[in-house]
Design brief:
Radius of gyration: 27 Å
Shape: elongated
Structural class: mainly alpha
Low-confidence stretches: none
Number of domains: 2
Order of helices and strands: HHH
Number of strands: 0
Number of helices: 3
Distance between the termini: 85 Å
C-alpha cells in the first residue's frame, strides 16, 4: 500500500476571474477538488516531480496525447509515401519509350 503524500499549505494571490473559475470547476468528488486541479496544472506545467504521484487521469491524458502524435506521424508518412509513389509513376510514364500497336 502506498503511503500518503505529505502536503504543504501555500497561499497564492490569483486574479479574481481565475480564482472564481477554480471554485466553479472544483467539487467535493475525489480528484476534482481545487487542490487536485492545481496539482494537475502544476504537473502539466512543470513535468513529473519526484515524490508526486501522477493521477490516473493525468497519465491517461499523456497517453492520449502520445497516441494522437503517433497517429498524426503515421498519417503524414502515409501521405508522403503516396506522393513519392505517384511522382515516381508519373516520371516513369514520362520517360518510358512509346510502344505502337501494329
Amino acid at each position: 500500500m502506498m503511503q500518503p503524500i505529505e502536503r504543504e499549505s501555500m497561499n497564492f494571490r490569483l486574479p479574481k476571474p481565475l480564482a472564481e473559475a477554480l471554485r466553479n470547476a472544483a467539487s467535493s468528488q475525489p480528484g476534482k477538488t481545487a487542490t487536485d486541479i492545481v496539482i494537475r496544472a502544476l504537473i502539466q506545467e512543470l513535468g513529473d516531480i519526484q515524490g508526486v504521484e501522477v493521477s490516473t487521469e493525468t497519465r491517461l491524458k499523456k497517453v492520449e496525447k502520445s497516441v494522437q502524435q503517433l497517429a498524426d506521424s503515421i498519417k503524414k508518412q502515409a501521405v508522403t509515401s503516396h506522393l513519392i509513389r505517384t511522382t515516381k509513376q508519373e516520371d516513369h510514364h514520362k520517360f518510358s519509350p512509346l510502344t505502337s500497336k501494329s
